[in-house]
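RNA polymerase subunit sigma-24: structure, please.
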Amino acid sequence: MDEHDRDDDSGADRLRRARRGDEAAFESIYREHARAIHALALRLTGSPAAAEDITQDTFLRMFGFLSGLREDTPLRPWLKRVAANLAIDRLRRERRYSDDDALLQALDGNAAPATVAEASGLLRRLPPLARTLVWLHEMEGWSHEELARRFGRSPSWSKSILSRSLARLREHLEPAEDDDEHA
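Here you go.
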């Protein structure tokens, strides 16, 4: 048995022990996955406080659903799906995307971009809903149909928001024409 197989066995073993109420096993699972879940929640919400809440809620849900998880189910993708759904629910509760006209206007706005070195900085320039759609579609692999179902909209709505969001991100990445003329 190679090292990778032992890691898989220890993960399955930890899950079995956590199901039986072993707090150390649950803590080990938390330590292994919490940073990734928090990073996803922060990317989707743009709020450290919201990301903390979503991370906590994700693991509380996992704890409550341990008996329903199949042993062969990869845990991290399941946790990421739960966290993404919690972030979407939070957006809906806060009604931060209820006005489609305001969202589209924000995406089409011509605010002068400052130089941004990292993608997360760029994503924070998008409205919360747009940021969530971009991340879930481009990085987490959600289809337009999945996004539409989750947000209670049509796939064309998701495609439109994603297209405008990506165009806006490209604007932030491309050098201004004035800079090219003076070079």
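Notes: Residues 1-9, 97-118 have pLDDT under 50 and may be disordered.
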